[in-house]
Amino acid sequence: MLTVGELAARTGVATSALRFYEERGLIHSTRTPAGHRRYPRGMTRVVAFIVFAQRVGLSLEEIKMELDTLPVGRPPRADEWARLSATWSERIAAEIEALHRLQRGLTDCIGCGCLSLERCHILNPGDRMASRGAGPRFWMGDEPEE
């Protein structure tokens, strides 16, 4: 059994985050007669799963739903971890594509800096001032539309 400090040291996750995960039902501990938390050694795998799942973009609610499908009382086997992470590749690919779209859009806008490009759907969607010309229209004296 590990103390909360030992679990934090082994996983690189702050003790406050571990307590938060426990409050949310993501990890579980037993208590000593003095009320101190004790975690089974297999909890390091669960914490690693939580960290990786968050990096992939899963919410804590989604992570809890996935963890709730695992067996109670024993560490998950490799095939059970694989089943949980099977959808991550699709999610990562979607995130990569979204970042590529963001990058392409920023490349078009950064050179000008006016934020009034008609095609800029990232930084200034629905820009009505673009019809008045390039540049910082309000600084140039144009009045805002009402």
Query: Roughly how many Å apart are the termini?
Result: 65 Å
Q: Indicate the CATH class of the largest domain.
A: Mainly Alpha
CATH architectural grouping of the largest domain: Orthogonal Bundle
**Mean of residue pLDDT values:** 81
- Shape, principal axes of CA atoms: elongated
Total number of strands: 2
Number of domains: 2
| Structural class by sheet pairing and helices | mainly alpha
Largest sheet: 2 strands, antiparallel
Which range best describes the helical content: under 10%, 10-25%, 25-40%, 40-55%, 55-70% or over 70%? 40-55%
Unreliable runs, pLDDT <50, ≥5 residues? none
Order of helices and strands: HHEEHHHH
The strand order across the widest sheet is 1-2
Q: Within the CATH hierarchy, at the fold level, what is the topology of the largest domain?
A: Multidrug-efflux Transporter Regulator, Chain: A, Domain 2
Number of helices: 6
Q: Work out the radius of gyration.
A: 24 Å
> Which percent range describes the beta-strand content?
under 5%
Written description of the protein model:
This protein has 146 residues and is mainly alpha-helical. The chain folds into two domains: 4-86, Multidrug-efflux Transporter Regulator, Chain: A, Domain 2 (Orthogonal Bundle); 88-146, no CATH class. Helix content is 48%, strand content 3%. The chain has a two-stranded antiparallel ribbon. Strand 1 (30-31) and strand 2 (37-38) form a beta hairpin.
